[in-house]
């Protein structure tokens, strides 16, 4: 069995990589955490991001990147264990608690996070933020969803279309 | 009253035993138990109605952050819609012109349990079935497909046979990847339309409480070309129809038979099947006739004689060169046949009677049959016995249907 520490680099010391946000802030993280991003994985595998170089991420600002990395650092050990068949129930419960807290955030941060997860292709984070938005929509009428998601007040045309939808898809409103 | 099922299962026996005595309440509860047991075998649905993550944060309000969600790419929004119960998903089409086409192009998840809400939950099973049937029909009509997951297990379909045929038609032409289709009893033997074989796109399929169609009359092209996992729960299905399914499912990897209305003679002839589980079935004979990829075989709580006692099952090792995991054999009760040789205490082990590939063997030992247990290592020389204890089958439950059909086991690939 491999040691619980990432063991990714040589001599047991975890390899670090540097990521650079769109506003030029540098973040140094373990390669294993950054590799949760499918987009970055191969670059890192090829030795990118090491030394003084750093990988520029022109689409992600520093506030969002720091949030993304918080997620990656927390989830990296479980991911290294191959999706966690060995993880204990306690570990899984802890990750679940972390995830619930993690998405308890302002909507503007949530949408930046969705875009970042999408651009960086971080599967677990993509599914977590999508679940969060889905949970905001569940059990609500279109008007309530619009309000929750911060849509402006509907125009008369939009109102008319909403009513038409309600007539055509009555089963969805029963 | 519907005729009781054949006496070849525990439930069938209980039902027959009590049907004459007018013990309707007991029968009902046995029926209920059967049905709830079957439902418990179905793995978790991918979409749920609860909003676990929705800590209601204050809406940004008044256009400061105007509708940033609508600026997200289609792919992301479709992904969100696919996580919603069917009714919620459909309602998103009313949000705005940006959202209108998205519902129709998002892969749809339909779970019947989500369609009955609020006060309707207190209605009679028949009334709930009618609601489910009518909504499912309208969803399948309105959405162009494909359907990534359709799960119907709460509806009694006897009164709705025409709709059932329509559903299967829609699922066939619009495409379904994963389908759970369970009839809520009674009756137990409602005929499943043979059009089920037109679901060419289905990759995971669970069928429960039906009379399986007679495959002798089917056209030559009838097949499940993409079926990977199949679970049959409490079906009235003939052996030749099981043979037919195996023959017409060229990529099938996992077969689970969870209780059956008939006794089983399963002949495994499949160049793709890797795992077979028979649970709570009445197994007369199981023959690995030609199963080059078969790695795991489980018999769990199989009933082996009509009176409920454990009569013998014959297990034939024909061609299964990759079988690694085998359980739960009952030494002294099951008859093992390797090639043409019946394995008995006095049988000599030689190259014709040894199954060298088995690495993990689970035994279910009921009483003192030490010599039978001791002889097994000679014929299964590479096997590490996981358990030779009557309590062991409590530890090694079979995995729920339609999930990874592998119980916890210390085997490395």
Automatic annotation (TrEMBL), chain A:
<dbReference type="InterPro" id="IPR036296">
    <property type="entry name" value="SKP1-like_dim_sf"/>
</dbReference>
<dbReference type="InterPro" id="IPR016073">
    <property type="entry name" value="Skp1_comp_POZ"/>
</dbReference>
<protein>
    <recommendedName>
        <fullName>SKP1-like protein</fullName>
    </recommendedName>
</protein>
<dbReference type="InterPro" id="IPR016072">
    <property type="entry name" value="Skp1_comp_dimer"/>
</dbReference>
<dbReference type="GO" id="GO:0009867">
    <property type="term" value="P:jasmonic acid mediated signaling pathway"/>
</dbReference>
<comment type="function">
    <text>Involved in ubiquitination and subsequent proteasomal degradation of target proteins. Together with CUL1, RBX1 and a F-box protein, it forms a SCF E3 ubiquitin ligase complex. The functional specificity of this complex depends on the type of F-box protein. In the SCF complex, it serves as an adapter that links the F-box protein to CUL1.</text>
</comment>
<dbReference type="GO" id="GO:0016567">
    <property type="term" value="P:protein ubiquitination"/>
</dbReference>
<dbReference type="InterPro" id="IPR016897">
    <property type="entry name" value="SKP1"/>
</dbReference>
<feature type="domain" description="SKP1 component dimerisation">
    <location>
        <begin position="124"/>
        <end position="163"/>
    </location>
</feature>
<dbReference type="Pfam" id="PF01466">
    <property type="entry name" value="Skp1"/>
</dbReference>
<feature type="domain" description="SKP1 component POZ">
    <location>
        <begin position="16"/>
        <end position="75"/>
    </location>
</feature>
<dbReference type="InterPro" id="IPR001232">
    <property type="entry name" value="SKP1-like"/>
</dbReference>
<dbReference type="Pfam" id="PF03931">
    <property type="entry name" value="Skp1_POZ"/>
</dbReference>
<comment type="subunit">
    <text>Part of a SCF (SKP1-cullin-F-box) protein ligase complex.</text>
</comment>
<dbReference type="InterPro" id="IPR011333">
    <property type="entry name" value="SKP1/BTB/POZ_sf"/>
</dbReference>
<comment type="similarity">
    <text>Belongs to the SKP1 family.</text>
</comment>
<keyword id="KW-0833">Ubl conjugation pathway</keyword>
<dbReference type="GO" id="GO:0006511">
    <property type="term" value="P:ubiquitin-dependent protein catabolic process"/>
</dbReference>
<comment type="pathway">
    <text>Protein modification; protein ubiquitination.</text>
</comment>
TrEMBL record, chain B:
<dbReference type="Pfam" id="PF00646">
    <property type="entry name" value="F-box"/>
</dbReference>
<dbReference type="InterPro" id="IPR036047">
    <property type="entry name" value="F-box-like_dom_sf"/>
</dbReference>
<dbReference type="InterPro" id="IPR053781">
    <property type="entry name" value="F-box_AtFBL13-like"/>
</dbReference>
<dbReference type="Pfam" id="PF24758">
    <property type="entry name" value="LRR_At5g56370"/>
</dbReference>
<dbReference type="InterPro" id="IPR055302">
    <property type="entry name" value="F-box_dom-containing"/>
</dbReference>
<dbReference type="InterPro" id="IPR001810">
    <property type="entry name" value="F-box_dom"/>
</dbReference>
<feature type="domain" description="F-box">
    <location>
        <begin position="66"/>
        <end position="102"/>
    </location>
</feature>
<protein>
    <recommendedName>
        <fullName>F-box domain-containing protein</fullName>
    </recommendedName>
</protein>
<dbReference type="InterPro" id="IPR055411">
    <property type="entry name" value="LRR_FXL15/At3g58940/PEG3-like"/>
</dbReference>
